[in-house]
Design a protein that fits this description.
By secondary structure, the chain is an all-alpha fold. The protein is built from 14 helices and no strands. The longest helix is centred in the middle third of the chain and has 36 residues.
């Protein structure tokens, strides 16, 4: 068990290192000069050269990457090209907003998705099951930005019930959270349904029903406990996806999170902000997957045994 956990931690660190290298190279080799963009069209060659020297862009590529890597390990993410503020200060302000939005969206998806998945599995092939499955397909197919704009139109413009942008009052998170929860909601419903169907076919469920145990106890006490194991995995993956993919929602609702910060940084070629945002999103996703994998081994130790046998063979 300890060897498996250690190996997963090392793999996570290697993946994050490769992500940092790829992100750095893609940004550095992208067309355009950040110094020239910061100074505008009226900039002189001398001014651009001076700013490039101040930003360290005149050094060789490998030196810039090593400096970036060492500074990142020390917690120094550099300064923004646009406002010269420390990147860590920008991230510290934006990250809680993205975390809050992702957590609330996932909670809404779990509260709605798990009961619907159970209902769909228990009433397999019924009208209820068909309606739920159709709703899942429709839910996954709706673009987030379109849903967000429709929510703004209905609840902000027509009925004036909720704010359409910003992070002010506690209820300002309702519309962006509802908009963003659609993607994980569909996957949670589908995973809960398929997992419940598989568990309900097991012999111990048949035996529990033969003993006269009430159907409600069979479903929620015996079947659901085992059916939730893969659901926990998908919830962890969905949380990582939400943390890294909130760009559209934050842009539509002007939510001051990492996604909106990165969009603004992309337009201004603010490379330190872009690098920090991508690294933070990747690190969050990798960390969540690591925690889910470790938790899964404690829930079901057979996973570790299976992977050891597969490796040895």
């Amino acid at each position: 068990m300890a060897y498996y956990v250690l190996r997963r931690i090392i793999n996570a660190f290697v993946i994050l290192l490769l992500v940092s290298l790829i992100v750095f190279l893609l940004l550095e080799l992208a067309p355009g000069d950040p110094a020239a963009m910061q100074l505008g069209h009226t900039a002189t060659k001398e001014g651009v050269a001076q700013l490039r020297a101040e930003l360290g862009l005149d050094r060789p590529l490998h030196q810039r990457y090593l400096s970036f890597l060492v500074d990142t390990l020390k917690g120094n993410l550099g300064r923004s090209y646009a406002n010269r503020r420390p990147v860590i200060a920008e991230i510290r302000y934006a990250f809680p907003a993205t975390l809050e939005l992702s957590v609330v969206s996932l909670i809404i998806a779990i509260i709605i998705g798990v009961p619907l998945g159970i209902t769909s599995a228990v009433h397999q092939n019924s009208l209820t099951d068909k309606v739920i499955r159709f709703s899942v397909i429709l839910d996954i197919s709706i673009p987030i930005f379109w849903l967000g704009m429709m929510l703004i139109l209905v609840f902000s413009v027509i009925f004036a019930l909720l704010p359409s942008y910003g992070r002010t009052e506690w209820y300002s998170i309702i519309l962006p959270a509802v908009s963003m929860c659609g993607y994980p909601l569909g996957f949670i419903i589908r995973m809960t349904r398929s997992s419940m169907l598989e568990v309900l076919r097991n012999e111990y469920i048949t035996a529990a029903r033969a003993k006269g145990i009430p159907e409600r106890l069979v479903i929620y006490k015996h079947a659901l406990r085992n059916a939730l194991i893969p659901v926990v995995t998908i919830v962890g993956l969905m949380f990582g996806t939400l943390m890294g993919g909130a760009v559209l929602t934050e842009t539509v609702f002007a939510w001051p999170g990492i996604g909106r910060l990165m969009v603004q940084a992309i337009f201004s070629r603010d490379y330190p902000i872009i690098r920090a945002g991508i690294l933070l999103s990747s690190a969050t996703f990798i960390l969540i997957n690591l925690v889910v994998d470790i938790a899964y081994t404690y829930i079901n130790p057979a996973v570790v045994i299976y992977k050891k046998d597969k490796t040895s063979s």
